[in-house]
Amino acid sequence: MEPQQRSPLLEVKGNLELKRPLVKAPSRLPLPGSRFKRGLDQMEDVLEPEKKRTRGLGTATKFTSSHPRAPAITTVPQAQGQTTAPKVPKKTGPRCSTAVVTVLKNQKPGPAVPAQKPGTAAAPPKLGGKKPSKRPAWDLKGQLCDLNAELKCCRERTQTLDQENQQLRVQLREAQQQATALGAERRTLEGELTRVRAQAEQGQQELGNLSARVLELEERLGTQEGLVQELQKEQLELQEERRELATRLEEQERRLQASEAALSGSQAEVASLRQEAAAQAALLAERGERLHGLEMERRRLHNQLQELKGNIRVFCRVRPVLPGEPTPPPGFLLFPSGPGGPSDPPTHLSLFRSDERRGTLSGVPAPPTRHDFSFDRVFPPGSGQDEVFEEIAMLVQSALDGYPVCIFAYGQTGSGKTFTMEGGPGGDPQVEGLIPRALRHLFSVAQELSGQGWTYSFVASYVEIYNETVRDLLAPGTRKGQGGECEIRRAGPGSEELTVTNARYIPVSCEKEVEALLHLARQNRAVARTAQNERSSRSHSVFQLQISGEHAGRGLQCGAPLNLVDLAGSERLDPGLALGPGERERLRETQAINSSLSTLGLVIMALSNKESHVPYRNSKLTYLLQNSLGGSAKMLMFVNISPLEENVSESLNSLRFASKVNQCVIGTAQANRK
Ligand code: ADP
Ligand code: MG
Fold first, then answer.
1. 438 Cα to the center of ligand 2, angstroms
2. Helix (H, G, I), strand (E, B) or coil at 265
3. How far, in Å, is the centroid of ligand 1 from the Cα of 416?
4. Which sign does the torsion angle of CA 520, 398, 391, 629 carry?
5. Fewer CB under 10 Å: which end of the chain, C or N?
6. Sign of CA dihedral 206, 207, 213, 216
């Protein structure tokens, strides 16, 4: 791509730019003879002397060319016949006369002897070598002689002129022939010129086209050159990129080789790991088998432990003195240490009661009577909710293993039953009751057991039994405490399972859902409360959780209900009180409560004594709980005690009832396995 090297097309254009006139270029057309090589101007130059000569004859050429057929010869004799100044001969033809007249016209008309222009050929001959002097008038002979001489001269001159005229005619003919030839030649040349011009025009046009083409090609060339430059640039970039890629490729290849080496190492490792994994899987299966065996063994031992602890257990809990309450006298309640010393959890409680009536009879105040009680566990006023729950956690877990569990809170109103079961006010986690704690514990153990292939589901219900009527505490939108009428029915014909009609059974799987249920139950109780009648303390609240577990892999199923019961206040109506209309109602309530609580006692006794008839149906409470009492069931009773001296009578009643229960032993529990 050397810029100096120009294409042939550019050469053409260069020539065009020089603007050489084409007409000046010698024609390449073949001309006929060398004569035609001369231009028209030269031809005219040839003719010029002829013209010059003819000009001297005035317009003679004019008429000879315009009247070629005029008989030129005829004029000579006529002219010869003239002796003097010419006159128009009448007998001559119009053409001849015109020629003569024209000739004569060009000569100035004047005297008979025409004045000779100096230098002309027809100058009069000088006579005797000198101009004759003027003859006197009288010398007529001399004058005649002069005239003759002059005449002679004129004749000679005429002759000369005729000859000249002849010559001129010849020349004229030649000239005319030449003119004719030249005319033909001119026409030929004009034709040629026209053709050449046409060619020139065509050439110009072609040249124009070529110029346009050249411009176009130059433009394209420019574009192509730009493109070439761009491509060259791109090529450089690509080369650079290629170098980079080659470097990277080398790097990648190196890495690949390293990876391949590592891979082959890894493959060997994988193979050995696979073998190891297979061995581990076999071991795992074996361990799983063993784990299952161990789990079953754990359940068996757990149950044995629970049985050793007793299928009916009684815990006594004494609530603290609340702010504003009178401080009980020192030593009113004592919690003696167990056989293992103070480190042993307390199981005994001593209550000192001063009997004023006995004192007045003897006149001396009688010493307070000591009442000792022993339970599976005693919780003094300072015991926290967590401490209490710790003791029942294992029992709750029995429900997961398939043993029905029943936990009661028994005691007079205000002794702390609801606090123990549901928890204290304000949602403080520290004072959370047994129900939320038990459920949280169950959810977490169920989660652990899911690792061993167990799947658990929980369904909750919460009802209250007031005056032997059952009401759903989870009923949404309950108005004025009047929930739908609920009845305790068998789940199906021939089924042992009991269910409460119109009550909601809600699946739960997390703490929040349980919280929501407890909140709803509290709201329903608050609606039912009236100024005169603290109904919640006059009714039993039964929280039931139906637990269902399944081990799909082994086709095992287990399920048992967990019952958490907040019993109605166990206090008796003061027999000394006057019976007004309100008190009568209260009496009826109390009788109902007392009846159901004593039925509970009777049922437990009957179970303990293995009586053939257990009076479950004597109260709604025992009827509802019959599947969770006796047999394989495990029962725990909290007896809640007020620390106040004023409540000593009710406290003793509660402690006595609880002691009776504590003496009961219910037969060996059987897990509900299917
Ligand atoms: P009940 O349900 O037996 O009628 P509550 O559970 O309502 O009695 O308790 C009565 C009052 O005593 C409540 O204000 C409760 O907060 C409080 N209380 C009960 N037990 C305890 C305890 N262990 N610690 C602190 N306060 C308690
Ligand atoms: Mg209560």
1. 19
2. helix
3. 4
4. positive
5. N
6. negative
Instruction: Return binding residues.
Output: 411-418
- Cβ count near 121 (within 10 Å): 10
Tell me if 529 sits within 8 A of 536, measured CB to CB: yes
Domains of the chain in start order, with CATH, are 311-319+330-662 (3.40.850.10)
CB count in 10 Å sphere of residue 350: 15
What is the whole-number distance in angstroms between the Cα of residue 463 and the centre of ligand 1? Answer: 21
- Chain segment 220-229, per-residue pLDDT in tens: 999 999 999 9
Q: How many helices (H) and strands (E) does the chain have?
A: 14, 14
Ligand 1 contact, 415 CB (< 6 A): yes
Judged against a pLDDT cut of 80, whether residue 579 lies above it is answered with: no
Asked if residue 640 has its Cβ within 6 Å of ligand 1, the reply is yes
Residue 541 Cβ inside 6 Å of ligand 1? The answer reads no
Q: Which atom of ligand 1 is nearest to the CA of 409?
A: 3
Give me 31's structure tokens: 């001309």
DSSP notation for 182-242: HHHHHHHHHHHHHHHHHHHHHHHHHHHHHHHHHHHHHHHHHHHHHHHHHHHHHHHHHHHHH
Q: How many CA atoms lie within 13 A of 244 on its CB side?
A: 6
pTM: 0.59
For 334-370, the pLDDT digits (tens) are 998 877 777 888 999 999 988 665 555 566 667 788 9
Do 166 and 80 form a contact (C-beta atoms < 8 A)?
Answer: no
